[in-house]
Amino acid sequence: MNKEEQVMLRFREVFNKLTWLNKLKMEAALSEHTPSEVHCMEYIGKHEDANVTRLAENFYMTRSAISKIAKKLMEKGLIESYQKPENKKEIYFKLTPEGLAVSRLHDELHEEFRERDRAVFEPITDQQFDGMLRFIERYSEHLDQEIEKLDESVKPHQA
Questions:
Q1: Separation of alpha carbons 92 and 74, rounded Å
Q2: Of 31, 28, 52, nearest to 40 (Cα)?
Q3: Is 30 a residue whose pLDDT tops 60?
């Protein structure tokens, strides 16, 4: 196995472990909500004027899938829609007080996970972080270019 394959394998392994480990606590604390619902609420809470298109692009999902999630969140009373006076066509979302509470709980869990993992990150130098971030950004840009090459009909954020 070459170095590139080793890096990709290790990325997947670390991601899978992290997902599994975090999932246990997340599911226990947020059992009434799907991960997609929680992440949509997180995005809505952190981005002004969140709408279906922006959510779909961020999560690489179809607008139809995001619309279904948004509908469920509205039915649960966790988000509400609004329009701007100058743009009656576009529908935006914001968290309700109940949605804010769920989002805060989610943030607290992430802080707990960061605290759990702090021992791994503390000895990392700024130079090492910068190198890792450069690699991740370069790879992300490469993937963006590959996505752009796709036919419009198969892009993940298209309906």
A1: 12
A2: 52
A3: yes
